[in-house]
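FW: tagging you since you asked about this chain on Friday. Here's the raw sequence from the shared folder, copied in full. Didn't touch anything.
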Amino acid sequence: MLRLPHPTQVAIRRIRHIGLICLIGLITSVLPPKALAADVSLVVSPPRFDVAGNPGETIQKIIKVTNNSATQTLNLKAFVKDFIVQDDMGTPVPVSVTASGRYFASPWFTLDRSSLTIPPKSEDQLIVLIQVPRDALPGGHYAGVFFQPVPEGGLKTTVSYTASQVGSLFGITVAGNVKYNAIIKDFSVGKNLYEFGPVDFQATIENQSDTHISPKADVKVYDMLGRQLTDLSLDSVNIFPFTSRTIAGRWETVWGLGRYTATLTAAYGPNGAVATRTILFWILPYKLMTALGVILLVLIAVFILIRRHILHREDKRDDEIDELKRKIVELENKNR
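HL: got it, structure written out here
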């Protein structure tokens, strides 16, 4: 006689099958297909151009694009985009022509082609022509040539890039009556009182010029006697018009005692304009000084106690001698 499975067992089996199917679907949806996974290294060099030009001048530059992937062919779209900088880290932000205003430059660019196909372990070049208009405003103008992967067959490709590897940024300074001005908004140390070194410096410089600047900043440290102890160079960065950048440096010292003066000097512009600012800080090994003070007080107390003990013994010895002398005199008197 044929025995049918119990309805409860059938339901359990169905639940197991459904759970297994869902688990397989979840795994396949999370893991990318092998055919699409690609570890692609795209290198664009140089990452930045600083260009000086006159109104009406045509400038030619070459960008080298390298595909370091071992197996993946890169299909790239090349395009030009204006950019601005809004944060203290100097991060370029692409914007539209209408939004970039006075500093735009993308209409000046002509690329020799708009797409590139680069085989694995190969490189290619892109020629860039920059036509500076005759009525271009003096000062800085900014745009970048960027490269975007074009997937084949409409499928997504897993590609890893960094900001410096997907484009070249152009800073174009048009000759003319260019205003240069910069201020040091902030200059500080990690703390006003250090027990020991090192000492960390941080400065924020604001560029109020018509073009970008690359200030050469250094910090000179002096002791209480006015002697210069170090001349520390800070990071060299580009600062775009009407933005600020924060730079840092470290004085690698260990020991110090007293008040110190630090003077920041930032030289910028073609004529060597200088911005300066001075701060004070202290280095006092107060824990060590406290411990040495306690040890010194203990030594002084021990010295005083020993001296008193010695003096007391000398006084007692003198009394004993006087008593012996008195007894000797008494004996002599009796013998008479």
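FW: The two ends are 154 Å apart (CA to CA).
HL: agreed, and Residues 18-38, 154-165 have pLDDT under 50 and may be disordered.
FW: great, closing this out.
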